[in-house]
């Protein structure tokens, strides 16, 4: 159910897959001790510049397709990040 973990395991075994980049919610009780207070927004922006649009943003754990967003501009990325972080401890972003 963890998309990014599954992607990492597949990579280790040379199985083709879509890469996932993980960002933890700096305000979530499970992750706040592991994430800088300033958050991940700068890192997310850098990733978006590297992979270009469109990108897919989704919660780390499986949600059956709920809260999955396809973003085509920075404004949509910001809205998706805010929406997911309001509910979840982490987000996976993929090209």
β-sheet strand percentage: 15-25%
Order of helices and strands: HEHEEHE
Low-pLDDT runs: none
Q: Specify the structural class.
A: alpha+beta
Helix count equals: 3
Radius of gyration: 13 Å
Span between N and C termini?
Answer: 19 Å
Overall mean pLDDT: 89
Total number of beta strands: 4
- Oligomeric description of these chains: single chain
Can you list the strand order of the major beta sheet? 1-4-2-3
- Note the overall shape: globular
Main sheet makeup: 4 strands, antiparallel
* Helix percent band: 25-40%
Q: Which helices and strands, and how do they pair?
A:
Blueprint: H1 3-12, E1 21-24, H2 41-51, E2 55-59, E3 69-71, H3 74-85, E4 90-94
Antiparallel strand pairs: 1-4, 2-3, 2-4
Summarize the model shown.
This protein has 95 residues and is of the alpha+beta class. The protein has helices spanning 3-12, 41-51, 74-85; strands at 21-24, 55-59, 69-71, 90-94. The longest helix has 12 residues, at 74-85.
Description of the molecule:
The chain has three helices and four strands, in the order H-E-H-E-E-H-E. It is of the alpha+beta class and 95 residues long. It has a four-stranded antiparallel β-sheet, covered by helices on one side. The chain starts with a helix and ends with a strand. 22% of the residues are buried.
């Amino acid at each position: 159910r963890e998309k990014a973990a599954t992607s990492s395991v597949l990579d280790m075994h040379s199985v083709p897959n879509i890469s996932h980049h993980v960002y933890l919610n700096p305000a979530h009780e499970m992750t706040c001790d592991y994430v800088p207070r300033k958050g991940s927004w700068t890192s997310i922006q850098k990733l978006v510049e590297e992979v270009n649009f469109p990108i897919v943003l989704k919660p780390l754990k499986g949600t059956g397709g709920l809260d999955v967003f396809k973003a085509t501009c920075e404004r949509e990325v910001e809205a998706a990040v805010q929406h997911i972080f309001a509910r979840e401890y982490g987000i996976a972003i993929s090209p």
